[in-house]
């Protein structure tokens, strides 16, 4: 069954075209003095023999015995015997039944075997070449898959570190609040626990509901407002469907960058987070005024990891635009879902 599925893949038309051209070539070259329908039948039977030899070796013999030279040679010998036997059926049994002629039997045995061996090699060599090409593509895909898994693990490792700065800031803040017996402590710890639990429970290569990511962003903002008085943030979210899914951890990364490098207390230039989502596309924009008083040198690692994550998970189904002006920094992401 697997062989037939492979035959009807994208390359089916290419294969079909090749066998049609070969059929016409055999028909033109080998014009036997027999009725037209017999000639066509002979050509079709011959091409069937050739195609059976080609695909049986491409999808069975080479994959099965490629690493065992003894069984590979034995399988090729068996294929050759079957190939010759089928040829005998075509040009002796079938032809004799309709015309009374025996093309195989009338040829010298040595010449016949050499002739069949030449045809056998003519079909087998391209099949071996196709298998080598297929093997190379599979190895390349496996290599890319391993590299992709490794990069995803690296990104997952970075994500599992959570956010070191906010973690320690929040823990210190909780310590101070507990000393002051503030009623906000329990709410803050509860919000932080939800964020941590959500971050640990989600796998980077498995989608989650977009509304859960939005809730995570809202909790992140709430924590920052608890840590820094008068934090100015505008969050604008528009859904057309609550069942929209996204790979986790992509959007929050750009929000974290805005809080890390942006001005938190400007009423004229608040951090603006805009999300517009439909089943077809997600539009996400983060704009912040740069905080020139923060002495933070950007290594670019954060943005690099986020871009890498987008590339691994969405490939050519996303666009990322960064507008880095003197005072304003804007990041715009578009993700195609279908």
CATH fold group of the largest domain:
Heat Shock Protein 90
Mean pLDDT score: 78
Largest beta-sheet characterization:
5 strands, mixed
Q: What is the string of SSEs from the N terminus onward?
A: HHHHHHHEHEEHEEHEE
DSSP strand count: 7
First and last CA, distance: 30 Å
Radius of gyration: 34 Å
Helix content: 55-70%
Order of strands, widest sheet: 2-4-5-7-6
Structural class: alpha+beta
Which strand-content bin applies to the residues? 5-15%
Q: What is the name of the CATH class of the largest domain?
A: Alpha Beta
Described by the principal axes of the CA atoms, the overall outline is: rod-shaped
CATH level-four homologous superfamily name of the largest domain: Histidine kinase-like ATPase, C-terminal domain
Number of domains: 2
Q: Please report the number of helical segments.
A: 10
Unreliable runs, pLDDT <50, ≥5 residues?
A: 1-7
CATH architecture of the largest domain: 2-Layer Sandwich
Report on this model:
- The chain folds into 2 domains: 2-150, no CATH class; 161-336, Histidine kinase-like ATPase, C-terminal domain (Heat Shock Protein 90, 2-Layer Sandwich).
- It has 10 helices and 7 strands.
- The protein has helices at 2-7, 12-29, 36-65, 69-99, 109-160, 164-179, 184-201, 210-227, 250-261, 301-314, and strands spanning 208-209, 233-239, 245-246, 271-277, 281-289, 318-324, 328-336.
- The strands form 2 sheets. It has a 5-stranded mixed beta sheet with strand order 2-4-5-7-6, covered by helices on one side. It has a two-stranded antiparallel ribbon with strand order 1-3.
- A hairpin with a 3-residue loop joins strand 6 and strand 7 (328-336).
- Helix 2 crosses helix 3, helix 7 packs antiparallel against helix 8 (210-227) and helix 9 (250-261) packs antiparallel against helix 10.
- The protein is rod-shaped, with a radius of gyration of 34 Å.
